[in-house]
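Human:
Care to share another protein and its fold?

Assistant:
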Amino acid sequence: MDAGLKKTFDAICTVPGSVGAVMIREDGEILRASGDMNDPDEAFALSNLMKDAAQLVKIALPEAKSITRLTVSRQSGVTVVATLHHNHVFGVKQVDR
């Protein structure tokens, strides 16, 4: 694995409140996961959510070049943040403490 991608993944694992992190290729292949994001279904859903959000941005704002970050919050105090970086999706799941 590219050293820069490993460093990025390691950094998102230390985000305050993090209970899991994942690194996914744009094609949906899970490259690395930790914590709650070790569940393949959850990581796959995050990858698809990022792709769907990118499509919505293209529809709503055709002049936009790309979506770089997506934040999904649930009332239960769980937030998932996905970031597109170098053709990979990095996701972190956080809980309010």
About this structure: The CA atoms of residues 25 and 88 lie 4 Å apart. The chain has one domain: 3-95.
